[in-house]
Design brief:
Layout lengths: L23 H4 L1 H20 L11 H12 L3 H14 L2 H13 L3 H6 L9 H37 L4 E6 L2 E7 H20 L4 E2 L9 H6 L5 H12 L3 E2 L10 H29 L3 E3 L18 H23 L10 H6 L2 H21 E3 L1 H9 L6 H10 L5 H9 L6 H9 L5 H9 L9 H7 L1
Parallel strand pairs: 3-4
Antiparallel strand pairs: 1-2, 5-6
Helix pairs in contact: 2-3, 2-5, 2-7, 4-5, 7-8, 7-14, 8-11, 8-20, 11-12, 12-14, 16-17
C-alpha cells in the first residue's frame, strides 16, 4: 500500500522528503541491501581467485554476471530478499540465499554457490556495507559544506572593505569588516571539511570473533589476513582493521560523526550570528512573492531559513553525538545494540542535509544594508578608545588605559570630544594627526586584506 508523505512519521520522509532525496540511494533499506550484495559478490569472486582446491576461478563472463547483480540491483530484487527474510528472520542470510538463487541455473556458478558467505559472520558483511554507505554519505555532506564555504568566500570578497561595528559580550567593540567576519567562518569550515575527509573508513572480514577461526580450520595453509585485507582495500576501497571482535569497533564512525558535529556547530554559530545581524537590520532578505512572515503581523520578514537550519542541525548533532558515544561500546565480543542504532545513520545525515539546505537558501536571500551598518559605526566613536590608548602607551603617556576609561566607559562619545582629548596629549605631532584622521570606519586593521585573502 502506498502511503502519502502526509502520513510520514518522520519529517525527513514527509515535509522534507524532497530535500533528503539525495540520501535515499545511500542510507535506505534498499541501499543497505545493495551494499550487502556488493560485499558478498566481491568476496565470492575474490575467493575464486584465491586458488582454493575445491573452488575454480570463475570465468570472466560469470564474474561480470555476478557484478551485474549489483549494478542492476532493483527495488524488485530488494523486495525478493525481504520475502526470503520473512522466512529466515535474518536479513544477511536472506541476501546469501538470494545470491545463491541467482547462481543455481549456471553450472559453474552453481558449483561455487556454497562459497557464498564462506567463512563470514553477518557482521563481516554489515560492517563493510556500512563503511561503503558512509563513504558515499560523506561525499554528500562535504559537497554541501563546500558549497556553503564557497558562498561565504564570495561574501568575504564582496564585502571585504565594508566596515562594521564588532560586538563582544554584546557590547560595542573595535570595528571589523563584514567580509572578514564571513572569512572567519569560511576558514573554520575548510578545516572542518578536511577533518571529515581525512577519517579512515575501516572494515573487517575476519570471521565470528575476529580470529579467522573458520577460515583456518578449512584451509590452514592460506594467508587469510592478507586475503581479507586485499578484498577490503583493493576491491572495496576501504581500510583494513586487523584487530576486532565480532564487530568492527566503530571507533572510526565516532571520529567521523564527531567531525560532522564540529562542522554543524560552526554553522549553528553562523545561523545565530546572521539571525542577529538581520535583527540589527545589517541584512535585508529578498522577498518571495506570496510568502507570509507572520500570521498576524504582515510587515514581518522573519529569518526562518536560519532558524530552520539551526533547529535541524541541532537535531543532526543530537543523533550524531549519540551514535558517536554509543557505537564504540559493545558487550564482550558483541551485542546487537549497534545493529538497530546504525539504521539511523540516514536520519542523522538527513537532518544535516535539511539544515544545510535551509542555510544555503537563507544565504541566497541576504542583501547587505550598508546604510544601517555605516550608521552604527557613525554613532560609536567610543570604539576608538583602544587605538588612542595604544598610541599613548607607545609614547609613555602615564595611565593611558585609565584616562580613556574615564573618558569613554558607559558614555556617549562625540568626534569633537575625542579630538579635544587627542589635542591635549603629549605625543609627537604626526601621531596626533594620524589619530585625528581616524574614524570608526577606518579603524579596521587589516580586516579587508584578510577577507580578500581567503
Amino acid at each position: 500500500m502506498e502511503i502519502s508523505s502526509l502520513m510520514a512519521l518522520s519529517p525527513l520522509d514527509g515535509r522534507y522528503a524532497k530535500q533528503t532525496e539525495v540520501l535515499r540511494d545511500i542510507f535506505s533499506e534498499f541501499a543497505l541491501m545493495r551494499a550487502r550484495v556488493t560485499v558478498e559478490i566481491e568476496w565470492i569472486i575474490a575467493l575464486s581467485e584465491f586458488k582454493l582446491p575445491e573452488l575454480k576461478e570463475l570465468s570472466a563472463e560469470n564474474k561480470e554476471y555476478l557484478r551485474s547483480l549489483v549494478s542492476n540491483f532493483s527495488l524488485s530484487d530488494c523486495e525478493d530478499i525481504k520475502k526470503i527474510e520473512a522466512t529466515t528472520n535474518h536479513d544477511v542470510k536472506a541476501v546469501e540465499y538470494w545470491i545463491k538463487g541467482k547462481m543455481e541455473k549456471n553450472a559453474e556458478l552453481a558449483a561455487a554457490s556454497e562459497f557464498v558467505h564462506f567463512g563470514c559472520t553477518s557482521e563481516d558483511i554489515n560492517n563493510t556495507s556500512h563503511a561503503l554507505m558512509l563513504s558515499s554519505g560523506r561525499q554528500v555532506i562535504c559537497s554541501y559544506l563546500q558549497a556553503i564555504t564557497d558562498k561565504l568566500k564570495t561574501f568575504a570578497h564582496d564585502w571585504a572593505s565594508v566596515s562594521m561595528l564588532s560586538r563582544t559580550h554584546g557590547q560595542h567593540a573595535s570595528p571589523t569588516t563584514v567580509g572578514k567576519e564571513m572569512a572567519n567562518v569560511a576558514f573554520r569550515l575548510e578545516r572542518a571539511i578536511n577533518n571529515i575527509e581525512k577519517v579512515h573508513l575501516l572494515a573487517k572480514m575476519n570471521g565470528a570473533v575476529g580470529n579467522f577461526n573458520a577460515h583456518y580450520i578449512a584451509y590452514p595453509d592460506k594467508d587469510w589476513p592478507a586475503f581479507a585485507q586485499d578484498v577490503i582495500t583493493n576491491k572495496l576501497n576501504l581500510e583494513y582493521n586487523k584487530y576486532t571482535i565480532q564487530i568492527e569497533p566503530h571507533d572510526y564512525m565516532a571520529q567521523l560523526f564527531d567531525a560532522i558535529v564540529c562542522a554543524n556547530t560552526i554553522l549553528i554559530d553562523l545561523d545565530r550570528d546572521i539571525w542577529g545581524y538581520i535583527s540589527l537590520n545589517y541584512f535585508k532578505q529578498q522577498l518571495k512573492e506570496g510568502e507570509v512572515g507572520s500570521s498576524t503581523m504582515p510587515h514581518k520578514v522573519n529569518p526562518i531559513d536560519f532558524e530552520n537550519s539551526e533547529g535541524n542541525l541541532g537535531m543532526a548533532n543530537a543523533f550524531l553525538t549519540f551514535l558517536a558515544q554509543k557505537l564504540p561500546i559493545s558487550r564482550w565480543q558483541r551485542d546487537l545494540t549497534d545493529s538497530t542504532v546504525l539504521r539511523n545513520m540516514g536520519v542523522s545525515f538527513g537532518y544535516c542535509v535539511v539544515g544545510y539546505t535551509a542555510l544555503t537558501r537563507g544565504m541566497g536571500k541576504l542583501q547587505l544594508n550598508e546604510q544601517a551598518v555605516s550608521a552604527d559605526l557613525d554613532n560609536s566613536w567610543e570604539v576608538l578608545a583602544e587605538a588612542i590608548q595604544t598610541v599613548m602607551r607607545r609614547y609613555g603617556v602615564p595611565h593611558p588605559y585609565e584616562q580613556l576609561k574615564a573618558l569613554t566607559r558607559g558614555k556617549g562619545i562625540t568626534p569633537e570630544s575625542l579630538h579635544e582629548f587627542i589635542a591635549k596629549l603629549d605625543i609627537p605631532e604626526d601621531a596626533k594627526q594620524n589619530l585625528q584622521k581616524l574614524t570608526p570606519h577606518t579603524y579596521i586593521g587589516i580586516a579587508d586584506v584578510l577577507a580578500k585573502e581567503i
